[in-house]
Specification:
Length: 238
């Protein structure tokens, strides 16, 4: 199987149908689809059951956070390339998988994003992204096709993170110079920008986790003014 789509969701009744329709409507059918629901208490699972024939694996149970749920999906993944299209996100159109199928030549293949705003924002990514670039730019996991074997080589997501686990994983992987990346100049997904990572209430947690990652993987950051300032601030605001 060429592609594995993993959808993680929890109480996503308002938008989960958009995600499902964008998956089942793909013109390319060379994919498996794993849905990991965190034990929703609204009608999310009821809606998912309408698509049960197209879902390869459906899990609905409590978990320890988004990265625990994403790791559950990875453990059951058989496809050559994996993409996370979480609850509320959707593919830009029905030909995304078919269009990407002939461009699978690197370990990480990433495209561009649209946001769910009205009008939507366009987020373009540079032609090259390395570990150094991730100090300022993040891989878009909703628009990144990940070679499944990378999780065997480098491990899965660190579940001690609540928001920045995908950031940490990409930095960890790109610390190995043998990992290859490729940008494709097309919008892949529509990113719903009202999730936890974009929530202002979690801004300090996001900054704290990003600082933790940069302090671990970027020696130059530890001696920079910004790095030392953030370390000082977080030390006195535990």
């Amino acid at each position: 199987m060429k592609f594995l789509i993993i959808t993680v969701c929890f109480n996503e009744v308002t938008h989960i149908r958009e995600t499902c329709e964008s998956v089942v409507g793909q013109s390319c059918v060379d994919f498996e689809w794993i849905v990991v629901d965190g034990g929703s208490t609204d009608r999310t699972v009821e809606i998912l059951e309408e698509y049960r024939e197209k879902i390869t694996v459906l899990i609905s149970e409590s978990d320890n956070g988004i990265y625990h749920a994403m790791n559950k999906g990875i453990q059951r993944a058989n496809g050559e390339y994996l993409i996370f299209l979480n609850g509320g996100d959707s593919f830009v159109d029905k030909d995304i998988l078919q269009g990407v199928k002939d461009e699978l030549s690197a370990d990480l293949i990433y495209g561009d994003l649209l946001t769910s705003g009205n009008p939507p924002s366009k987020i373009r990514f540079p032609e090259a992204l390395s570990k150094k670039d991730l100090l300022k730019k993040m891989f878009p996991h909703q628009a990144t096709f990940i070679r499944r074997s990378l999780f065997d080589r480098f491990g899965t997501y660190d579940e001690s993170f609540k928001i920045a686990g995908d950031y940490e994983w990409f930095v960890r992987v790109l610390s190995d110079s043998s990992v290859t990346t490729r940008h494709i100049s097309k919008y892949v997904s529509i990113f719903r920008d009202d999730g936890i990572s974009q929530n202002k209430a979690f801004r300090m947690l996001r900054k704290r986790e990003n600082h933790r990652i940069r302090w671990k993987y970027y020696p130059s950051y530890r001696f920079s003014f910004k790095g030392l300032k953030e370390a000082f601030r977080f030390f006195f605001n535990k």
